Amino acid sequence: MKIRPFLLIALLLLASHVFADAPATDLKTSAPAKKGGLLGSLFPVEEDESIHRGNFLAGATLFLLQGNSDEDALNILFGDIYKAEGYTFTAEAFGGYFIRDAMAIGMRAGYSRTYVDVDYSILEDLADIKEHRKYVSNGFFVQPFLKNYLKVFDSRTIYFFNETSLTAEYSYGISQSDDGEDVSKTRNHGWTFKFGINPGLCIMVLDRLAFETSVGLLGLSSSWLVVEENGERRSEVSYNIVNFKINLLALDFSLVYFF
After folding, report:
1. pLDDT tens per residue across span 56-87
2. Which burial class, exposed, middle or buried, applies to 229 when counting CB atoms under 10 A from its CB (0-12, 13-18, 19+)?
3. CATH number of 28-258, picked from 3.30.420, 3.30.310, 2.40.128, 2.40.170
């Protein structure tokens, strides 16, 4: 059986029409794949998002640590503590501006106060040293920072962030000891400079209001201190601290508002 010429031509036209309508695949115009790693797979920041370029942030942090002993004496290795009470209080405010998406620069400023009152005795069998000691210190600090938010999830509720900061702090304090016969007063004042990296978590509780917590991961600290005893200059102390461990005592909680 012979195929007629017009039937062969019709089949060729049909085949060419099918291949012409099929989608073309071009390796050169295909979308590039996302880079590997956490930073390479972040979601883009949308224009009306809180961490978008051109927005501001402002917030405050309060910290209070307070404690006291009961009426019974507390036995320690070399003696007894009859009375002990004290507190540490810190208040700070901060603000920043997003120079680009998810990246803000800003400044913190704050005040801290420490008070300790302890009545103790040591080496009762040998020297029988009994003292009542009080200590009060005040500090003021400023802290410029660079803050990077990481949009790991496709969500406007949870962000990770990392804050890099440099702190300059001036503090002064007075310590008084009374052994029942003599009263000695020691004053100190000095400067402390710190460099720190603090990763954390940001949770949006309202449309523009967030709760943030962070922890100290890397800290470099340098301090210079002048000590005066009974009105006379006694010594100068300088020391440096390098910490590559997670500092759970530096856990920080803040309320932040974006606008």
Report:
1. 999 998 888 877 766 555 555 555 556 778 89
2. middle
3. 2.40.128
